[in-house]
Amino acid sequence: MTLTRAELARYVDHTLLKPESSPADVEALIEEGAELGVFSVCVSPSMLPVSTPEGVAVATVCGFPSGKHHSSIKAAEAALSCEQGADEVDMVIDVAAALAGDFAAVEDDIAAVRAAVPAPKILKVIIESAALTDEAIVGACLAAESAGADFVKTSTGFHPAGGASVHAVKLMAETVGGRLGVKASGGIRTWDDAVAMIEAGATRLGLSGTRAVLDGGEAAGSY
What we know:
Layout: H1 5-9, E1 12-16, H2 23-36, E2 40-43, E3 57-62, H3 71-83, E4 88-92, H4 95-99, H5 103-116, E5 122-126, H6 134-146, E6 151-153, H7 166-176, E7 181-185, H8 191-200, E8 204-207, H9 210-219
Parallel strand pairs: 1-2, 1-8, 2-3, 3-4, 4-5, 5-6, 6-7, 7-8
Helix pairs in contact: 3-5, 5-6, 6-7
């Protein structure tokens, strides 16, 4: 796959979710994201509202990073984020429910947040793929689709099991069959990593080191 720097940048949710992030850090993220031409900036919900230039969406997270929150709390957090200007919300499922095969509970959890994130706002569902079996990945993706989500997403980037893998992205993309988007996030640090995820079926990338990824492609003569 051959992509230009600008084309790859448009896949990116330029992300800053470190607990120690300050308002100045967020301002710097937004400025850098606008310069790089990313699709969105993704910040913690407590940092909202923020102002971004035209063409740069605002994303945030919900039930992050553990997913071990009551669905009503996730929904309330998501609703407040939308009121404060978020265009997209990335929620974390209850990973244990998916591992136990209780996909009805996973679907109900997602549906509660979907009700709080009305279209055309985007709901992405983080399944923490590195912690799941292939069967659980498929089940979680189907639950997300049944609940009305817009995307499935690999990882928070905070789980000790790891982040995105080509295998997980490919399996998720095959499961949702183009009906939902697929976001690869967690551990994507090079141009080649990013392109591999897109080739596997990712339609969005979560990156915290966006500039390094884009610069790496230029240095390698990849575009």
